[in-house]
Amino acid sequence: MKEPIYIIDGARTPFLKARNRPGPFAASDLATAAGSALLLRQRFAPTDLDEVILGCAAPSPDEVNIGRVVALRMGCGHKVPGWTVMRNCASGMQALDSAINNIRAGRSNLVLAGGVDALSHAPLLFSEAMVHWLSSWYAAKTLGQRAALAAKLKLAYLAPVIGLMKGLTDPMVGLLMGQTAENLAFRFGITRAEMDAFAAASHRKVLAGQKAGHYDAEVVALFDKAGKVYAADDGVREDSTAENLAKLRPFFDKKYGNVTAGNSSQVTDGAAWLVLASERAVEKHQLQPLGRIADSEWAGLDPAEMGLGPVHAVTPILQRHGLRLNDLDAWEINEAFAAQVIACQRAWEDTDYCRRELGLPDALGSIDPARLNVDGGAVALGHPVGASGARIVLHVLHTLRRTGGKRGIASICIGGGLGGAMLVEAVS
Amino acid sequence: MSTAATTVSPAAGTAVPARKNHPAHPRSEATMQHWKITREADGLARLTFDKAGATTNTLSAAALVELDAALDELDRDPPAGLVIASGKANGFIAGADIDEFGEVRNDADAIALVKRGWDTFNRLAAVRYPTLALVRGFCLGGGMELALACRYRVVVDEPSTRLGLPEVMLGIVPGWGGITRLPRLTGAPAALDLLLTGKTVDARRAKRLGIADECVPARIMENTARGVLKAKPAPRALKMAQSLTLNPLVRKFVAAQAAKQVAKRARREHYPAPYAILELFARYDGNALAAPASGPASITALLKTPTAGNLIRVFRLQERLKSLGKDGDFKAAHVHVVGAGTMGGDIAAWCALRGLTVTLQDQNAERLAPAMARAAKLFAQRLKDARRVRDATDRLIPDVAGAGVARADVVIEAIFENLEAKRALFAAVEAKAKPGAILATNTSSIPLEEIAGAMQDGSRLVGIHFFNPVARMMLVEIVVGKSTRPELVGPAAAFVRQIDKLPLPVKSAPGFLVNRVLAPYLMAAMRCVDEGLAPETVDEAALAFGMPMGPIELADTVGLDICVAVGRMLSPDAAPPRKLMALIDAGHLGRKTKRGFYSYASGKAAKQPPGAVPAGLAQRLIDPLVGEARSALAEGIVADADLVDAGAIFGTGFAPFTGGPLHYAAASR
């Protein structure tokens, strides 16, 4: 039996939709605000932490080791190490897994781990051609050389490269993430209407969840310098009905594709944290755990079908623990794309897929839809890449506590052809 | 490999006692107590000022005489260059020895005091070897004048490094060459700004203004000092336009313009020093000894007015309040403030600005939001540097749930003035707070004993009473209730000092000290308005007396609703002024609602020219204040008359040049 890993508490910022310009908070602002509020309510001091681990897919150039920056900003002191992990969309989940590893290795007992990204702050970059031109310009010594260079400057060089689009394009297969979702729709015959219905349901569930207070325990309000309060996730919309979503144009495969901005996750800023503790730390600080992380798994697959990552990461966990799909009381599968979450369900229902890709004797079956993403997901909340993995682990724990469930799974697909999953348990 | 490493040889060590290795200079060893000459292998010398028997370097007569002797000593074997530095960790030189001002009995004493610094620094300025002041920490008054007499100045880029000539704030003039030399480095406008306001500048600004030749981090200060002395760069020349301001004719013009600015803040009859500074600058190139003894710029004339003595008294009162926080070792790391209104929010922001971790609690995020916005503005204004603003912002944590109570070393309640709400709050806070935490209320009207009654241990409750606007008001009353454990005063005062305010312990009685003496003054002013005088005329009478702000404008600033509440508390039977009640009924509560006795549409009080001030009007306003000050003293609200005056000056702005209401009353009898 492995050493138990306890989750003591967690908190996140509201997820703030990017609105075509840098949002009010930098990534480290978001992580600091959520983390300070979380640490404030603990029975231990920030300086009692053994380390701080933060997942971030796109830290800005002035806070590359954002985990350390934020640890210091939260008042953890010079002596608490802080570091940053990167596994694209699962960076936050990777931070939890790195914390688990260090606790199991005996290096740490009490770890603050989570994820953050402020995608609205993704940089505009100079094109390669422009960088070469600038290098020559700075090296030029004479007026003549400069004049010659000035003549060579083409207007096209000035067109910026949008950093975010770079990040959302797979470097191996050259597909936009949305195009990998189109692949899954093609493979499993998922229709536009099914995607839009899924997306509409996500918005409906988030609204209901907000109203019922299902997010209250995890979200802490933010304040900007002008005194504006950001108290709740702001990407969700009342008017995102299936009919309205049907009106949107395909975004990735233009014109004749099926994946739209409306049935994809939103581009969003946000941060999420969890406090992880060993048994010793629980006893030492008399902590009251929210739950346990019982197992975790990472899997690789074809980058062109990265959205099936959860299928490949979850299946070995189920096998190890002798669980069937509906032995889990709550599921969170991160909604990178509606098509992608539907595809995961289809894959488990598909005998052929299960035999050929997962080496199972038969189809695994269907997840009870009432247990999957009960309060909606990233299509309505947004997907601040690094934060999402931590958010779904925290939310599935709160769902178990609220419903009296025993076991849950949080799983996420990862650009580049990876999947990550964690099995969590309630503590009685 | 590293030339830097060779330059930082033991010879460059800061305070290596080298005397024993230099038997060639036995004289200085035998006679010098405050200064120390260290000869170094490369021909440079170091003159270290480490005033004997003092924690802070001040230029007493003895220290100046000895400096003269040190210069003799150096003349015998002139060094290749001289670094003048401090042997104290807390700063360079704080200025002249203020205690010696009190020993000035006659004109000859005053002239001697000026002459000894003037002559010594002129001598220092004239030595043939290059001289350099290495300034780390405060460099003020006479200390600044010493630095200015050196050929070069290297300042260390740290927040504690502050340079300035604050003499004007003590009602005197920089007589040791500051008025002469500062304008030559900065040009007249910047120099006069410093001379006339007494404000200080940090290291970077000193470099930008031309006061310092180099502004460097401490790690390379020694290398820099030696490097400058060896390179001997030509003194930085003033720009054409700046050097023009030193032309004798232009000086008169510049001084006249500056006098108009001064007149807006300080009347000549109350504050002669800034006018004397302008006169010395315009006509005598800063030489106070050259001004005719009969003229207004003469040092003897200045010292004959009571202003200088009274301002020095105010300075000492301030030092006394500062010392109240020195006992014990209480140091707060975390402050929890309950109530994010104007007072609570601003107290929280101020504490975060001063480096404390602060949690700010109110019922919901919307109530916290305006306080967070005001805090952001305060941080941006005061800190400027983006990293320091970020750090202060991070230290101020919004806390709707009140989790910070359990972490706090000081809990300050600043909710609305309701006894039941406060009792419930403190019962809850007491249960969650750390055993040693200070539990404080900012109430201005509810007796502490009544709140304390709801607590298990009511003796833990103390009042820490701030004034509005928190960022500007220096004074904080420490209110000791009948139930309060007396030992709490020390830690509470230490906390107030930690956030750089002035603590004044007061007994818990209606209005404590400040509001008690202020209220009758404001009421008297408002009754004059009821009788038909224009608010401008009433304010003008007080301004002419020397108040920094008229009572009507002050009432608007405090808030008319607060004025009524305080007035009712202090004299429940007296009918409140009619105009005051009419304004409140109309919803005009003063500056905060943009309208009170005056309109504040533009942010400033819109005033008409005052009418003729009736004879005796100022007295009619001031007398109730003085009377209340006497009765507060008689009732033992504070320990002695000096503390009454200190409270009135720092809490109400009572004309500082008078030395305080009781001092004024005694002097005018």
Which helices and strands occur, and which strands form pairs?
The complex is a heterodimer of chains A (428) and B (669).
Chain A: E1 5-12, E2 16-17, H1 27-40, E3 51-55, H2 66-73, E4 82-85, H3 91-104, E5 110-118, E6 124-125, H4 128-139, H5 143-152, E7 161-162, H6 163-167, H7 177-188, H8 192-211, E8 222-223, E9 229-230, H9 242-246, E10 268-277, H10 279-284, E11 291-300, H11 309-321, E12 330-333, H12 338-349, H13 351-358, H14 378-381, H15 385-403, E13 407-414, E14 418-426
Parallel strand pairs in A: 3-4, 3-5, 12-13
Antiparallel strand pairs in A: 1-10, 1-11, 2-10, 5-10, 6-7, 8-9, 11-14, 13-14
Chain B: H1 3-7, H2 26-31, E1 35-39, E2 44-49, E3 58-59, H3 61-76, E4 81-86, E5 91-93, E6 95-96, H4 107-126, E7 131-135, E8 138-140, H5 142-149, E9 152-156, E10 162-164, H6 178-186, H7 188-197, E11 200-202, H8 203-209, E12 214-216, H9 221-231, H10 240-244, H11 248-265, H12 273-284, H13 299-304, H14 306-323, E13 334-338, H15 342-353, E14 357-361, H16 365-383, H17 386-395, E15 396-398, E16 410-413, H18 419-432, E17 438-441, H19 448-452, E18 461-465, E19 475-480, H20 489-498, E20 502-507, H21 514-530, H22 535-545, H23 551-558, H24 560-570, H25 578-585, H26 617-634, H27 641-652, H28 661-668
Helix pairs in contact in B: 3-4, 4-5, 6-7, 7-11, 7-12, 11-12, 14-27, 15-16, 16-17, 21-23, 21-24, 21-26, 21-27, 22-26, 26-27
Provide tags for this entry.
heterodimer; A: 428 residues; alpha+beta; 10-stranded mixed sheet; two-stranded antiparallel sheet; 15 helices; 14 strands; B: alpha/beta; 2-enoyl-CoA Hydratase, Chain A, domain 1; Rossmann fold; N-(1-d-carboxylethyl)-l-norvaline Dehydrogenase, domain 2; 3 domains; 8-stranded mixed sheet; 6-stranded mixed sheet; 20 strands; globular
Written account of the structure:
Chain A has a domain at 177-213 and 293-426: 3-Layer(aba) Sandwich (Peroxisomal Thiolase, Chain A, domain 1), CATH 3.40.47. The model of chain A has no long low-confidence stretch (mean pLDDT 95). Chain A has 15 helices and 14 strands. In chain A, strands 1, 2, 3, 4, 5, 10, 11, 12, 13 and 14 form a ten-stranded mixed sheet that branches. Chain A has a two-stranded antiparallel sheet with strand order 6-7. In chain A, strands 8-9 form a two-stranded antiparallel sheet. By secondary structure, chain A is an alpha+beta fold. Chain A is globular and about 80 Å long. Chain A has helices spanning 27-40, 66-73, 91-104, 128-139, 143-152, 163-167, 177-188, 192-211, 242-246, 279-284, 309-321, 338-349, 351-358, 378-381, 385-403, and strands at residues 5-12, 16-17, 51-55, 82-85, 110-118, 124-125, 161-162, 222-223, 229-230, 268-277, 291-300, 330-333, 407-414, 418-426. Chain B is of the alpha/beta class. Chain B folds into three domains: 3-239, 2-enoyl-CoA Hydratase, Chain A, domain 1, CATH 3.90.226.10; 334-508, NAD(P)-binding Rossmann-like Domain (Rossmann fold, 3-Layer(aba) Sandwich), CATH 3.40.50; 515-668, N-(1-d-carboxylethyl)-l-norvaline Dehydrogenase, domain 2 (Orthogonal Bundle), CATH 1.10.1040.50. Chain B is 47% helix and 13% strand. Chain B is built from 28 helices and 20 strands. In chain B, the strands form four sheets. In chain B, strands 15-14-13-16-17-18-19-20 form an eight-stranded mixed sheet, with helices on both faces. In chain B, α20 links the parallel β19 (475-480) and β20. The longest helix of chain B is centred in the first third of the chain and has 20 residues, at 107-126. The N and C termini of chain B lie far apart (77 Å). Mean pLDDT of chain B is 92; it is low at 1-29. Chains A and B meet through α1 of A and α16 and α17 of B.
